[in-house]
Design goal:
This protein is α/β, with parallel strands linked by helices and 286 residues long. The chain has nine helices and 14 strands. Helix 1 packs parallel to helix 7, helix 2 runs parallel beside helix 3 and helix 7 packs antiparallel against helix 8. It is globular, with a radius of gyration of 17 Å. Bound molecules: 3-hydroxy-5-(hydroxymethyl)-2-methylisonicotinaldehyde. The site of 3-hydroxy-5-(hydroxymethyl)-2-methylisonicotinaldehyde has 15 residues, from helix 7.
């Protein structure tokens, strides 16, 4: 039995703007989980608000790092992927999955937000992201990414419970046993993160207060707290509730200080909250 859990985090490292590894590392570390970074790219900032970003692609590094880990007998409890810089990186993520068949496979299919694709995401990369999703145990798309994966237009009107359940189960039908979709405006006027656990055929929703600003990196924080919770033994609704509560807290803190959204959320002020390992129960069945 290992005394601690170890995650291979296959995401980019963006210097400024608090997203991807810059938030995944502190978040999961505070939860008591060891994060081993496998950078997919190194960027000067995220791609949302700082103009001309400098990006170094790390595609070649990924299989070399994996070979090293295999040679050195390094094991992982979880393989968790996010922002990818090239379509070949999908193959390298799949190689990590095959090398660690007992690890929990989490794919955050980072591709876009607010109905728009991120500028580095080509048609080919989005198509291959679908392939990666099929090999995952758990996926955490936002509504934009869920629509891309289902080849559907981004829904501009709020969604009914029936429509939401249909999206969740159709995504699960592609392979992942657990699907969580973030940032959904429901027809009853609430903002929710919603989830489906196909093993128990159970649908869940966690409501949160809408704040009229959009901060990059909150999807990465949500997926990290959710994954951390699940690794440490939370049930799906409890992990969703923990992750939603933490994101809401970071967003409201940042909004309260009037910080420019491109800076991301003030995670440094909020991390101590994650030491609290009580169970979170602000969910309801859907
Ligand atoms: O938070 C998602 C993300 C990850 N990585 C990079 C990004 C973004 C969102 O803008 O630009 C480089």
């Amino acid at each position: 039995m290992t005394e601690y859990k170890r995650v291979a985090a296959i995401h980019d490292l963006s210097g400024v703007g608090r997203c991807s590894l810059s938030v995944i590392l502190p978040t999961m570390s505070v939860m008591g989980i060891q994060v081993c970074s496998v950078p997919t790219a190194v960027l000067s900032s995220h791609t949302n608000g700082f103009g001309d970003v400098v990006l170094k692609d790390m595609t070649e590094f990924m299989p070399e790092a994996l070979n090293h880990y295999k040679t050195a007998d390094v094991d992982f409890d979880c393989i968790y992927s996010g922002f990818l810089a090239s379509s070949e990186q999908v193959s390298h993520c799949l190689e990590f999955f095959y090398a660690y068949p007992n690890a929990l496979k989490v794919v955050d299919p980072v591709m876009g937000d607010n109905g728009k694709r991120y500028r580095t995401y080509t048609d080919e990369l989005c198509r291959r992201m679908s392939e990666l999703v099929s090999a995952a145990d758990i996926i955490t798309p936002n509504l934009t990414e869920a629509s891309i994966l289902l080849n559907e237009a981004y829904p501009v009107t709020p969604l009914t419970v029936q429509q939401m359940k249909s999206m969740l189960s159709r995504l699960s039908g592609k392979g992942p046993k657990t699907v969580v979709i973030t940032s959904v405006m429901m027809a009853d006027g609430t903002m929710c993160n919603v989830g489906y656990d196909s093993k128990n055929n159970a649908y869940w929703r966690v409501k949160y207060d809408m704040i009229p600003k959009h901060y990059p990196g909150t999807g990465d924080i949500f997926a990290s707290v959710l994954t951390g919770g699940l690794i440490l033994g939370d049930s799906l609704p409890i992990a969703m509730s923990r992750a939603t509560d933490f994101c809401e807290h970071t967003i409201k803190t940042t909004y309260g200080y009037g910080i420019s959204p491109r800076e991301g959320v003030m995670i440094e002020k909020c991390l101590p909250m994650l030491f609290d390992n009580r169970s979170y129960t602000d969910y309801s069945a859907m």
